[in-house]
């Protein structure tokens, strides 16, 4: 009996001592929808990657324009600012020819903060394109997950 109790205590201690804690402990994954068929207006200028929290249609339209295209999914994604807000990730203007883009790694809420982690693809200008673009991502987030937005670039 004594050996059985010792064995059980040993197993419990081993189980709890192997538990690891992560940096996102207490964080909640935030669901989002990526808005499609928008472009950054040429009146918007920035010298660095910007992460913006946008809470109104007027503020959104100051930065973005609609870019409807032909086909089934050609209309811009509808955004209802009475229920949602936008997190916009906007790159600097570039003539990179390798389709520069952002990849969203995670969006989490921790306390009163919403943290966007992203990576940037390689933006090569070795053979420049004949046009300039401003790479961007537009994330539509429910106001249920409202908070101060910050970002973390992974690349």
UniProtKB/TrEMBL annotation:
Keywords of this entry: Signal
PROSITE patterns in the cross-refs: PROKAR_LIPOPROTEIN
Phylogenetic placement of the source organism: Bacteria, Pseudomonadati, Bacteroidota, Flavobacteriia, Flavobacteriales
Protein name: PrcB C-terminal
Domain of life: Bacteria
First and last residue of the signal peptide: 1-22
Species name: Chryseobacterium rhizoplanae
């Amino acid at each position: 009996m004594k050996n059985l109790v010792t064995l059980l205590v040993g197993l419990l201690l081993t189980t709890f001592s192997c538990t690891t804690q992560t940096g996102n402990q207490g964080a909640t994954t935030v669901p989002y929808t990526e808005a499609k068929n928008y472009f950054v207006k040429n009146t918007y200028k920035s010298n660095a990657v910007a992460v913006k929290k946008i809470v109104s249609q007027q503020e959104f339209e100051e930065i973005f324009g609609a870019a409807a295209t032909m086909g089934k999914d050609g209309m811009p994604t509808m955004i209802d600012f009475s229920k949602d807000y936008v997190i916009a990730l906007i790159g600097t203007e570039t003539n990179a020819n390798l389709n520069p883009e952002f990849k969203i790694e995670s969006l989490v809420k921790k306390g009163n903060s919403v943290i966007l982690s992203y990576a940037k693809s390689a933006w090569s200008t070795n053979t420049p394109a004949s046009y300039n673009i401003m790479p961007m991502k537009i994330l539509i987030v429910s106001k249920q997950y409202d908070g101060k937005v910050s970002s973390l670039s992974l690349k």
